[in-house]
From TrEMBL:
Keywords: Coiled coil, Metal-binding, Zinc, Zinc-finger
Family: Belongs to the ZC2HC1 family.
Segments of skewed composition (Pro residues): 133-145
Gene3D superfamilies from the UniProt entry: Classic Zinc Finger
Domain C2HC/C3H-type as annotated: residue spans: 177-206
Protein name: C2HC/C3H-type domain-containing protein
UniProt organism field: Pinctada imbricata (Atlantic pearl-oyster)
Comp. bias intervals (Basic and acidic residues): 17-89
Region ranges (Disordered): 1-160, 202-248, 261-285
GO molecular function, one term: zinc ion binding
PANTHER family, per database record: ZINC FINGER C2HC DOMAIN-CONTAINING PROTEIN 1C (PTHR14649)
A Pfam family of this chain: zf-C2HC_2
Signal peptide positions (record): none
C-alpha cells in the first residue's frame, strides 16, 4: 500500500513538474513576444518621428529657398531699374541757357498745326450667298421580277427518291460498313480499324509499375530471391483518442493524493482509505519480446 502511494505521489510530482515547466515555457514565450512587440512599436515610433522631422526640415528648406529666390528677384529688378536711370541720365542732352531759346520754347505752343487729311473710306464689299440647287426628288425603285412558283411535288417524284434511298448499290461508295473497336467500342471504317486498334491498344494498356528495387538487383544473384509482388502489411487503423477518460483519471489521482497528504499531516493512518483509483492503461500495448523473456526466466 505504501509503495503504491509513493509511486502515485512520484507520478503526481512528475506530472506537476511537467505542467510547471510547460507553464514557465509559455510565460517565457509570452514575455519574449511582449518584448518583441515593444521593440517593434519603438522602432515604428522612431521611424515615424524621423519621417516627421525630415518632412518638417524639407518644408523649412523649401520656404527658405522661396524667400531667397524672391529676394534675389527683387534685387535684380532694383539693379535693372538703377542701371536704366543711370543710363538715361548719362544720355540726356544738355542745353545752354539763352533767352532766345526760352522765348522759342514759349512761342512754340502758339504755332498752328497743319490740319490732317480726311480719312479715306474703303468701299464695302457685299458678298452674296450662293443659292444651292434643290436635289431632284427620289425616283421609285423598279419593280422586282417575281420568280415562277415551284411546282408541287408529285407522288411519282417521291417514289423515285424512296427507291434511290433503298437501293443498296447507292451506298457502295459511302462508309456504311463501319467496324467497332474491341478496346474502346467506337466505330471506324474497315480500312482504318487496324491503325486505330494499334494506337488504342497503346493508350488503354496498363502502365508498368516502376520498381527501383527490382531494377537495382537485376543481373545479380539477388534477382532469384527478390519478388516484386510483395504484399504490404496492412497498417492498423488509428486508435480513437480517449482524452476525456485520461483527464478524469488524472483528476481522481490528484484528489486521492491530496487526501493522503492531508491525513499524513494530521497524523491519521491511511489504512482507512480505499485503494487508489485504477490508472487508465488503454493507450498501452504489450511487447511480445519482453513477455517471452519473462516467461523464459520464470520457467
Amino acid at each position: 500500500m505504501a509503495k503504491q502511494q509513493r509511486e502515485l505521489m512520484a507520478r503526481i510530482q512528475q506530472q506537476q513538474r511537467e505542467l510547471d515547466g510547460m507553464r514557465k515555457q509559455r510565460e517565457r514565450e509570452e514575455e519574449q513576444e511582449k518584448k518583441e512587440m515593444e521593440r517593434r512599436r519603438k522602432r515604428e515610433e522612431e521611424r515615424r518621428r524621423r519621417m516627421k522631422e525630415e518632412e518638417e526640415q524639407r518644408l523649412r528648406d523649401e520656404a527658405e529657398r522661396r524667400i531667397r529666390e524672391e529676394e534675389e528677384r527683387e534685387r535684380q529688378q532694383q539693379n535693372q531699374y538703377s542701371h536704366r536711370e543711370d543710363y538715361s541720365a548719362r544720355n540726356k542732352p544738355t542745353r545752354r541757357f539763352s533767352p532766345k531759346s526760352m522765348y522759342e520754347d514759349d512761342m512754340s505752343s502758339y504755332k498752328t498745326q497743319p490740319t490732317p487729311p480726311p480719312p479715306q473710306t474703303k468701299p464695302v464689299r457685299v458678298q452674296r450667298k450662293a443659292v444651292k440647287p434643290h436635289p431632284p426628288p427620289p425616283q421609285p425603285p423598279p419593280p422586282r421580277e417575281q420568280s415562277p412558283a415551284l411546282p408541287a411535288p408529285s407522288n411519282q417524284d417521291l417514289s423515285f427518291f424512296l427507291a434511290a434511298a433503298n437501293d443498296p448499290e447507292a451506298h457502295a461508295s459511302g462508309r456504311t460498313n463501319l467496324v467497332s473497336c474491341s478496346n474502346c467500342g467506337r466505330k471506324f471504317a474497315s480500312d482504318r480499324i487496324q491503325k486505330h486498334k494499334a494506337a488504342c491498344g497503346n493508350v488503354t494498356k496498363k502502365r508498368k509499375v516502376h520498381d527501383p528495387s527490382k531494377m537495382r538487383v537485376a543481373g545479380t544473384d539477388m534477382e532469384n530471391y527478390y519478388s516484386s509482388s510483395k504484399k504490404q502489411k496492412p497498417q492498423p487503423p488509428p486508435k480513437k483518442s480517449n482524452w476525456r477518460t485520461k483527464h478524469e483519471s488524472f483528476i481522481q489521482t490528484i484528489r486521492y493524493a491530496k487526501k493522503v497528504s492531508e491525513m499524513e499531516k494530521t497524523g491519521v493512518s491511511t489504512s482507512a482509505l480505499p485503494p487508489p483509483p485504477p490508472s487508465d492503461t488503454s493507450g498501452l500495448c504489450t511487447v511480445p519480446v519482453v513477455l517471452t523473456e519473462v516467461q523464459s526466466l520464470h520457467g
